[in-house]
Structures are given as structure tokens and as C-alpha cells.
Amino acid sequence: MMMEFGDTCCRLKECFVIVLIFQYSSLQAHKSLRRVALAAAVAGTVAVALSEAEQWGISGRISHRGPHPDADAAATRGHLGLIRAHPGLQDLNSALASSRDAFFLDAAHALAASALRVQTVTSKQISRLHGPGGLCKDIAAAESRGDESAVVDFRLLQALIDAREGRFDEALAAAVRLIRDSPGDPRPRLFAAALCFLHGRSGTALEWLRSVPDKSAHSALFFDTVLYAMPGSSPRFVEEGGDGTVVILMHLATTLAEAVLLLKLEQENGRCSVLGKLEIAVLSRLLRLFLSKHFTAAGGSKAFRFKMPRSSTPINPSKLNRTLVQCSQAILAPVLRARPLCGERLRVVRSIAERALLDAEAETGDASAAVDVNLLLAFLAARDGHFNEAMRRYAAAAKRDPSDPRPYELADKLCFVIGQPANAWRDAWQRAKEKPGRATRGHHGDGDVLQPLLDELVIAAALGNGGLADRDPNRGHVLVAAWREVDAGLAAALRDRDLTLPERVQLRGLRYILRAKIQPLLDNATQHEPENSNQH
Q1: What SUPFAM superfamilies does this protein map onto (predicted)?
Q2: Which distant-in-sequence residues (6+ apart) come within 8 Å of 133 by Cβ?
């Protein structure tokens, strides 16, 4: 189908944008260049997202705002800006200092997932797998029928979930037990190698790899483990990137992404124009040239040079799309030296925020700090998939200051995005908002401040509830919210005064090209109002 071929070409163009990212990030002259690189990459993903949105008839209102005059607007907007407005919350500000790029990562994740109609992996899904009706039940059933291979599969999946959530020691210990109990099975060894690699222990990873005589037969397990467990990788690995492991991760992820994209093209059964094939060949060549140059420069070991196994039967397109989403995260996180705000890291930030709330509430003269911390806690709860907890936090914020409109607007937006399960909450919030004295006070620029909060909340909800990213009509709202966040980040990066003239010209040109591709879609979107347009 032409639509599907167009999708494939767009995603290969995205790989070309990723090549540009590596070129920019390799300069390493200023920390802000990492944010520039991310913004450029996500802008490429946006072109894909909005193209598919138009094809599927999704629309949303996009406000075309001019650049913010504040050069540090990225740090003072949204939920990070709420806490930065209170310097007295020192511990919480410190905990969030490294989260700025994590918010960009979330926007990129939401865009990729919604563009490809992929359900995101959420904490609620992980909890179900860990529950009595999840993997424990599967393991017991496999043991009862004597299926040792299935037992190993399920136990490795348990360990993989622990690794993704940031519990590296537990995951590695489980792998070591499987190696001891099943010495002839190579899968636990490859799994342990992937975990050690992700946590910067390249020497130990190589030892595990050398103990596997035929790695090619199970190379998919190594790839899958690296991609899936990346969000829980150690701070030293992602944020410092020592020993060339960052470049190796990008090599693995981009190699896999290219293989998946080409496989999707092959499954089109030859329905590809000559021009399309030429474009794909050129972009693939550029990607391979870049990888070979930088992978060799980093001293990458041949032990990490896996080849993707060929499949004799067509692979489900949804599985290929899920792999592409995971690859995008595995590439962007190390480029930015940032980790996604999820799993154990999210829970640490939430714990610090809860202590900050106690401190703020002790200060009876400063109700605004207590309100803002409650808004942040509601956002974190939504990001972790706990929507009832988010509603309780919004209720606490509204109780602290009934005249502040933000808790009402944010709670109403979250109810709208979640849909049917939150209808009772939404009715209650709308009734509360109509009471005299409620939500009457303007707040620091109103829409310019409220819109980033709403967009970040929609993104958090999409990553907390995997079904929002792949199902209409909410998928369209996720796309629009993520686009606004990406566009704001790119605009902020271009205002960096430390950029050289060639860098600024290159980045500005890239932004203009990308915006030119999606501007017709944006114009079309502004002519249609989503169902809740009377609110936002």
C-alpha cells in the first residue's frame, strides 16, 4: 500500500536525522548541544507522527506561539518550573536538576509510540506481570509440565522487568542463578552480558559473551535485553558514558533499527518506487558510514558486533514498530546523557517530593509551595499509572488554594484523556469548579504557563497508560501535546547564545526544513477543534 510505503520512507528519513544528531552531539562543546540534538531528533519523529495523524484523520488544535524571551525557558516552564519557583525546596530542586532532558525523552517516547500505534510499557503492566496471576502463574504451569525451556524464558522475563525498573542487582542475581541451574543454556549468559554492558561493566559483559560459543542463534535476546532494560540502566553508564559503551549501545540500536526498517520495506512485496529505493539506499549508506567511523573510534569490541537473524516468515508489523520505539529511546538516552523518569528513579523523586510537601505545609505562610508540590506529585503519579492518586493530589492542591485554577484544569484534562474510567472524577471536578470563589484567580501568564503543564500531563498519562498511545481518539491528543513540547524545546535550544554561527545556521536550517514538511499538517489541524476545545 502507498500509505505503508510512505510510512517506511518517513522512518528511514528519521534515521537520517539521527545521523545528524550524532554529528551535533559529537561536538560536546556545550551541554546545551545535547538538548539541541534531542530536539532535532524528535522533530524528525514529529514529521512521522503528524503525517500518520493526517492519514488516520486525527486532528487537534495547535497554538502557534512565538519564541519565549527567556533564554532559559526550558528550565522554568512546565512542572520543573513549578519547583524552580521555590528555591527553598533545595533537595527537590537538586533531584529534578537532571530531569530536564528526561522530559524531552518522554515527549520523544510518546511521539514515537503514538506515531507507530504502539502501546507503551507501563508500571501498571509491570505490576500485573509481577502479580499472582502473571509470570508466577506461568512459571508454575511450565514447571508442572516439565518444560525447562519455558521456565527459563519466564524467569528471564521476570529479571528483565526488574532491570527495566532499575533493580539491577536483583536482575543480575536471577540471571546468575539460571546460569547455575541451566549450565548448558546460553540464554542466561547473553542476558547477563547485556545487563553488565548496560551498567558500564564491559569487561564482565565480554567474559559472559565469550562463554557462549554460538551467539548468532540467540542474538535477538541480547538486543531485546539491551533495548528493554535501558530505562533502568545505571546513572554512570548513561550520564557519564564511559569506556565507549554509549557508542556501542547506539551501534546496537541503530543497527537494529536499520534492519527493522529494511525488513518492513521487504515485506511490502516490492511495491516500492525506484526513487524510494534510491532514497532508502542513500540514507542507509550514510547511517552505516557514520556508525563504522564512530564505532571504530570508540574502540568497540568485535564481541558486540551481532548480526540480526533472518526470519523465514513475515514478522508482525506491530512487533517491528515496538522495536523501533525501543530503538529510538536506546539511541536518544545516551546521546543526551539522560535517563527516562520511570521505575526506581521516578519513585526516588516522588519520595523526595513527599518530604518537600511536608516541609512546605509546615510553612503556613507559603501556600503556593504546597500547591505546586502537589501538582508535581500528581504529575508523577500519572506518569507511574496511578491516576486515582493523581486525582487525590489535585484535590489536595485545590483545597489548599481554591482560587487557583490549575488543579481544576489539570484534573479535568487528565479525566478527559483517561476517558470512561474517570467520568465520575470529571463530573465532580466540573461541579467544584463552578462553585463561587473556585478557580477565579489568574496565574502568572495563564495560558502560557498552563499549556505546558497540560501537555506534559498528557504525555505522562500516555506513558502511564499504554492504551492511550495506540488508540483513537486519545492518540491524536498525545501527538499534539508531544509536538508542542518538542517544538518548544527546539526553539529554546536555538536561543543558546553559545552556539557558533555555523552550528546555529545548520540547526536553524534543519528546523525550517522539518517545519516546512509538517506545516501543512499543522495548518489543517488548527482548522479542527478536538472534543474538549471549549476548555483548552
Answers
A1: TPR-like
A2: none
Longest dimension (CA), the chain: 74
The type of residue at 398 is A
Contact yes or no for 522/50 (Cβ under 8 A): yes
User: Which long-range contacts link 353-356 to residues 24+ away (Cβ below 8 Å)?
Assistant: 353/92, 353/95, 353/377, 353/380, 355/91, 356/83, 356/89, 356/91, 356/92
Contact 406, 454 (CB under 8 A): no
Does the CA dihedral 442-447-453-459 come out positive or negative? positive
Residue of 407, 383, 384 whose CA lies nearest to 397: 407
Tell me which residue has cell 499538517: 521
- The pLDDT-based confidence of 443 (bands split at 50, 70, 90) is low
CA dist 213 and 216 (Å) reads: 9
> Among 360, 485, 369, which Cα is nearest to 42's?
485
Cis bond before residue 473 (omega within 30° of 0)? yes
Q: Which three cell numbers stand for residue 344?
A: 526506581
446's grid cell: 495563564
* Average pLDDT score over residue span 315-337: 77
C-beta neighbour count of 301 within 10 angstroms:
13
What's the angle, vertex CA 221, arms to CA 238 and CA 344, rounded to 5? 40
Three-state SS across 420-447?
A: HHHHHHHHHHHHHHCCCCCCCCCCCCCH
Exposed/middle/buried for residue 482 (C-beta within 10 Å: 0-12, 13-18, 19+): buried
Q: Which three cell numbers stand for residue 124?
A: 501498571
What confidence tens digit (pLDDT) does each residue in 388-409 have?
Answer: 999 999 999 998 988 888 999 9
DSSP for residue 70 = -
CA angle 319, 290, 51 (to 5 degrees): 45
Dump the DSSP string for 88-100. Answer: T-HHHHHHHHTTH
**Over pLDDT 90: what percentage of the chain?**
20
Radius of gyration for the alpha carbons in the chain, expressed in angstroms and rounded:
23
Angle at 195 between CA 340 and CA 231, to 5 degrees: 10
Amino acid, single-letter form, for residue 265 = L
Is there a contact between 94 and 435 (Cβ–Cβ < 8 Å)?
A: no
Give Cα 124 to chain centroid, integer Å.
16
Tally of CB atoms within 10 A around 74: 26
Can you say whether residue 342 is alpha, beta or left, with left for phi > 0 and alpha for psi between -120 and 50 degrees? Answer: beta
The Cα angle at residue 159 between residues 158 and 163, in degrees rounded to 5 = 120
Q: In the structure grid, which three cell numbers stand for residue 357, read together?
A: 510537601
With b for 16 or more beta-carbon neighbours within 10 A and e for fewer, the 12-50 pattern comes to bbbbbbbbbbbebbbeeeeebbbbbbbbbbbbbbbbbbb
Nearest to 389 by CA among 154, 125, 124, 199: 124
Task: With 0.85 as the threshold, say if the pTM is over it.
Answer: no
With a CB cutoff of 8 Å and minimum separation 6, the contacts of 451 are 63, 484, 536
Other CB atoms closer than 10 Å to residue 69's CB: what's the count? 7
